[in-house]
Design a protein that fits this description.
The chain is α+β, with helices and mostly antiparallel strands. Helix content is 32%, strand content 38%. It contains 5 helices and 6 strands, in the order E-H-E-H-E-E-E-E-H-H-H.
């Protein structure tokens, strides 16, 4: 079963660039535990990334009514981001820690 993951494409560039237009899109993902559980329990999941050729610098934010959990920034291949965005940008251990806090 696929879950809808809200992806907010944010810029890591200067605040003026980040304050400009922010593109949002929904993507389908079939990533399993713990990513699926995070998506289901969070109010919102944001995946921010910036492309550098065939590599991507990305970070995941898990947002609830009471808190925001920011993942550690990661660098990955653009191909990994397309296939499994959550796993590419948030380590399994970090995802489990965030899930335990929800």
């Amino acid at each position: 079963m696929k879950n809808i993951l809200l992806i907010s494409l944010l810029s890591f560039a200067l605040p003026s660039l980040a304050a400009s237009k922010i593109a949002q899109e929904h993507i389908d993902t079939d990533e399993g535990f713990p990513y699926k559980n995070l998506i289901m329990k969070a109010d919102r999941v944001e995946l921010s990334y910036k492309e550098h050729g065939d590599e991507v610098e990305c970070r995941v934010a898990i947002i609830t009514a009471n808190n925001t959990h920011q993942g550690t920034p990661k660098t990955t291949k653009a191909k990994n981001l397309r296939h499994k965005p959550m796993a590419a940008c948030l380590s399994r251990d970090e995802a489990k820690q965030f899930l335990a806090q929800l």
